[in-house]
Write a structure and sequence with these properties.
The protein is α+β, with helices and mostly antiparallel strands. It contains one helix and twelve strands. The strands form four sheets. A four-stranded antiparallel beta sheet has the order 1-2-3-4. Strands 5-6-7 form a three-stranded antiparallel beta sheet, with no helix packed on it. The longest helix is centred in the N-terminal third of the chain and has 30 residues.
Length: 291
Amino acid sequence: MVREQYTATTEGTQIERPENQYVYKIGIYGWRKRCLYLFVLLLLIILVVNFALTIWILKVMWFSPTGMGHLHVTKDGLRLEGESEFLFPLYAKEIHSRQDSSLLLQSTQNVTVNARNSDGEVTGRLTVGPRMVEVQSQQLQINSEDGKPLFTVDEKEAVIGTDKLRVTGPEGALFEHSVETALVRADPFEDLRLESPTRSLSMDAPRGVHINTRAGKIEALSQMDIIFQSSDGMLVLDAETVCLPKVVQGTQGGSGSLQGLYEICVCPDGKLYLSAAGVGTTCQEHSQICL
């Protein structure tokens, strides 16, 4: 234990201090001082390294008062120059390119564009994949430059708004259901063929069906019957020559028949057959053809 002595003195009094008085040194000495200096030096080195890394990151990332690298912040939004890669979904109200370049979206798998409502539900989706382009929406509409609908599709129908629909495939067009159109026409010097391989083919119109060819023939082929029916009118065959090459021939006429000439006879059920012409009619109502 160190015991300190305090002595009060007055003026003019001299008191000698003890010779064995203890002296206290204030400060850090020895190995503590060296550790403190080493710690301060280490903090200084870390500060310099952090400052250098900050300067390097700012330089590498091209930080500037207007943005970062090719990404600039403007009053209208964000402006991105060059090519960019997004690793996660991108949410934006509007994406457009510069006036002098086109907008390119590409991916190694597919490109998907979604439209959502206020509840976050997907109301429209466009997916461009490696094998097909898929559109999921209530209605798909393609407009021209002036806003005229060119192609519209919904759950009920598909509407083509152009003046002409041209099919250039070698196999033509295949329709599983009915087709409503005002005109079906082939290219010049090409044949027009309408066929149904396994079912019937029907052409209906409220004001008539007009079939016309200007430089060829009209041919109708069927495995079963071909029916021309008119409910209120009549069937007119208006041509210079009407040929029925496969009409069956009935019984021969009498001895007065003219060689090489025939007359067309009609059975009660409407069937036609040929009978050799004579001075008078040779049609026999009870011919075996009509049985």
